[in-house]
Amino acid sequence: MNGPTSGDYLYLREVVFSHTQNVLEPSHDHLFQSRLVGLLHRHSLSRLDELVHLLRAAKSPELERAVAEAMTINETSFFRDCRSFELLRTEVLPKIIEDCRSTRRLRFWSAASSTGQEAYSLAILICENFPQLSDWNIRIEGTDVCAEVVQRARQGRFHRIEMNRGLPARLLVRYFDHTGESWVIKPEVASLCHFRQANLCGQLPFQECFDVIFLRNVILYLSLETRQTLLSAMHRLIRKKGYLFLGSAEQPPDRSLWTTVLSGGTCHYRPI
């Protein structure tokens, strides 16, 4: 056999879409080879076309889900797009704190948390800049469709190369413990963050509303219909005075639900 055909790649893209609603273009086909190498090894396969044959023959939802999870975008770093975090520190959080002074309760959601850097960045920002919140009820939820990265996020253990991306040295020393080749998030930060597996295009695991939702660099990969459905769900899960952060290249498809706020060279959105 000569390797995967265009039909094989189409089948793989359809598998990913059926489980995550992520739309992969043919220009992304080369990613299958690198991202599925671990899955090939676990099933004693050497080529992608063999995996496609197994998928077609087995009709296994578990195997399909493993393919879809391996293809999700897990690019992340601490304080990624620092303008969003600076806006959160200087404008958004002071307003939210004032609004919630009577309840002393804050809820944040990192909706595509990957290995946890975004959620932990939120926790570090709070610990570093708002010591008056030390006795507040604060919870940062992190969700991701991929079980493997959720488990890594729960461990809060990061390699040196991950620590060198976006995290100032003073915060590294203050909020992490150095153990061998890794850095582990300290308990006072880790205790604010809670991670679980969730498919944003399926049944969302929350009933309560959030003060801040980070949904960055997610909807860019979804169909228009799926974007509309997801942002409608976010609208139901955000407080009336809450804030939604999207990626710099993203905006809500239904502008009747959200108002755009431009500040500090970056956009965020508030529910209407």
Summarize this structure briefly.
This protein is α/β, with parallel strands linked by helices and 272 residues long. Helix content is 43%, strand content 21%.
Layout of helices and strands:
Blueprint: H1 6-20, H2 30-35, H3 37-42, H4 48-58, H5 61-70, H6 82-99, E1 105-110, H7 117-129, E2 137-144, H8 147-155, E3 157-159, H9 160-163, H10 169-175, E4 176-179, E5 182-185, H11 187-190, E6 193-197, E7 210-215, H12 224-236, E8 238-246, E9 258-263, E10 266-271
Parallel strand pairs: 1-2, 1-7, 2-6, 7-8
Antiparallel strand pairs: 3-5, 4-5, 9-10
Helix pairs in contact: 1-5
Protein name: Protein-glutamate O-methyltransferase CheR
Domain CheR-type methyltransferase: 1-250
GO molecular function: S-adenosylmethionine-dependent methyltransferase activity
Please tell me about this protein's structure.
- With 272 residues, this protein is α/β, with parallel strands linked by helices.
- The protein folds into 2 domains: 6-70, no CATH class; 82-271, 3-Layer(aba) Sandwich (Rossmann fold), CATH 3.40.50.
- 43% of the residues lie in helices and 21% in strands.
- The protein contains 12 helices and 10 strands.
- It has a 5-stranded parallel beta sheet, with helices on both faces. A 3-stranded antiparallel beta sheet has the order 3-5-4. The protein has a two-stranded antiparallel ribbon with strand order 9-10.
- A hairpin with a 2-residue loop joins strand 4 (176-179) and strand 5 (182-185).
- Helix 1 crosses helix 5 (61-70).
- The radius of gyration is 20 Å and the shape is globular.
- The chain starts with 5 loop residues before the first helix and ends with a strand.
